[in-house]
Amino acid sequence: NVYNGDIGIITDIDLEEQRIEVTIEDREVYYEYGEYAITIHKSQGSEYPAVVIPVVMSHYMILQRNLIYIGIKRRKNKVVLIGSKKALVVYSSEK
Fold first, then answer.
1. Which of 8, 54, 65, 78 is spaced 20 to 30 A from 93 at the CA atom?
2. Nearest CA to 31 among 61, 8, 65?
3. Rounded to an integer, what distance in angstroms lies between the CA atom of residue 23 and that of residue 77?
4. What sign for the dihedral angle of Cα 10, 72, 54, 95?
5. Residue 83's Cα: distance from chain center in Å?
C-alpha cells in the first residue's frame, strides 16, 4: 500500500534485522535494506545529507545531463555515482 509519490519519515532502523521502519501518513511500513529510494524529480526543492545516483545504461532513455545536475544539487555533504563510465559519458553528452 505504498504508491509512487508517497513520502515517509524513517522512524526506526533495526541493524540486526537489517530493516527500516517508515511512517507514511499514519501507518508503519517496513523495508529491507536496499528496498527504498526517491526519484530525483520528487526530491526537487529538498536537500539530503547524502545522495546516491545510479548511472547505468539500462536507463539510457532518461540519461540527461540536467537529471544528474539536479541529483547532485540535492546533496548537502556527499554524492555517490554508481554505475559505468560509459553511462556517465552518455549523461554528459546529452543536450
1. 78
2. 8
3. 25
4. positive
5. 14
DSSP-derived 3-state class of residue 93: helix
Dihedrals phi, psi of 9, to nearest 5 degrees = -120, 130
Whether the Cβ atoms of residue 54 and residue 82 lie closer than 8 Å to each other: yes
Strand-pair partners of 29: 22
- Copy the grid coordinates of residue 60: 539510457
pLDDT digits (tens, 9 = 90+) for 17-51: 989 898 998 899 998 877 766 777 777 788 888 88
Q: How many CA atoms lie within 13 A of 87 on its CB side?
A: 17
Prediction pTM value: 0.55
What percent of the chain has a predicted confidence (pLDDT) above 90? 9
Residue with cell 546516491: 52
Q: What is the SS3 assignment for 37-76? A: CCCHHHHCCCCEEEEEEEECHHHHHHCCHHHHHHHHHCEE
